[in-house]
Amino acid sequence: MKAVVIIKPGGPEVLQIAERPKPAYGPNEVLVNVAAAGINRPDVFQRKGNYPPPTGAPQDIPGLEIAGKVAEVGADVTRWKTGDKVCALVMGGGYAEYCNVPEGQCLPVPDNLSMAEAASLPETFFTVWSNVFDRGNLKLGESLLVHGGSSGIGVTAIQMARALGNPVYVTAGSDEKCRFCEELGARKAINYNNEDFKIAIARLTNNKGVDVILDMIGGNYTPGNIQSLANEGRLVMINAMKGKDVQVDLSAVMRKRLIITGSMLRSRDIAFKSAIAQNLEKNIWPFLLSGKIKTVIHSVFPAGEAAKAHQLMESSEHMGKIVLVF
Ligand SMILES: NC(=O)c1ccc[n+]([C@@H]2O[C@H](COP(=O)([O-])OP(=O)(O)OC[C@H]3O[C@@H](n4cnc5c(N)ncnc54)[C@H](OP(=O)(O)O)[C@@H]3O)[C@@H](O)[C@H]2O)c1
Q1: What is the pLDDT of residue 56?
Q2: Quick one: which of 295, 321, 293 has its CA closest to 164?
Q3: Could you tell me the CATH superfamily of domain 2-121+266-325?
Q4: Rounded to the nearest whole angstrom, what is the distance from the C-alpha of residue 203 to the centroid of ligand 1?
Q5: Among 153, 187, 267, 294, which is least packed by CB within 10 angstroms?
Q6: Where are the domains of the chain?
């Protein structure tokens, strides 16, 4: 099969098409003929050599999410059959013509979505569900602040929160990105280049603060996050792009009874990911089918142009998802 491989750690140019054997699959796995693969920021970190794939995942083929048709099924697979259209969260190896996936990590492609659209769903939908609704325990009516509102994660978080009845605030780096986030359903998008988000959040919430913050930035955002949380608030970290060593006012944590938590999805086991898939199918897939939650695709590239796709992601000019098609 053809695959996009990382020939050595480095810039986007190290992504090249190469021949690789079709992956083997286990009794509880399906082999998917990949039509499209979503691109995520962690793929960029992996390409640079800063995010080694877990044991068992393909080491030189990036890609955490796919959509395609089931080509073959393992002996113990019960739900899927050859020809079914699925999208799936994978441990790696998504940028390839074939990818093996545990059956529980597959979801049906909603009838109203193309393969490229379906491939843009799993990584951010699994991550947002797991961190905002499970770990962050965002309850009906509670407010959410998402940093990086126009990121793949951001556009998913905005739409899921809004669909489930939660006011959502975001930060983003330009007025254009802010408008885009508000059109998607953010109650207010704060351009962090024009206004300090902690001052904006205090104003927007009448000094109450927000109930949950989903943060991928870390670094000097952390004191502002602590300040922007309401009593009993939860800060959920999914990355620390501006630095992991931070100062925290522990007296505020105690005074406001805050929870600081975080998680990494990729290394979690199949049972954990399969449970998220079940929750998504029950709670979120109906919103995709009804159109209340939409896919937000910025660009689609042929697999042979994976380097261009990564360049775009690193420019941070995109709003929403970038997808590769085979
Ligand atoms: N823990 C997990 O399980 C998990 C799973 C998936 C993703 N993630 C993390 O979630 C984040 C978003 O992923 P994504 O695929 O949605 O990314 P993405 O679409 O590339 O968006 C990242 C956005 O973050 C903003 N940003 C602010 N400071 C930045 C910095 N120092 N470097 C780069 N971007 C910066 C940029 O928007 P502005 O121009 O508005 O600043 C950029 O568009 C990534 O950090 C990723 O590693 C974590």
Answers
A1: 87
A2: 293
A3: Medium-chain alcohol dehydrogenases, catalytic domain (3.90.180.10)
A4: 26
A5: 267
A6: 2-121+266-325, 125-262
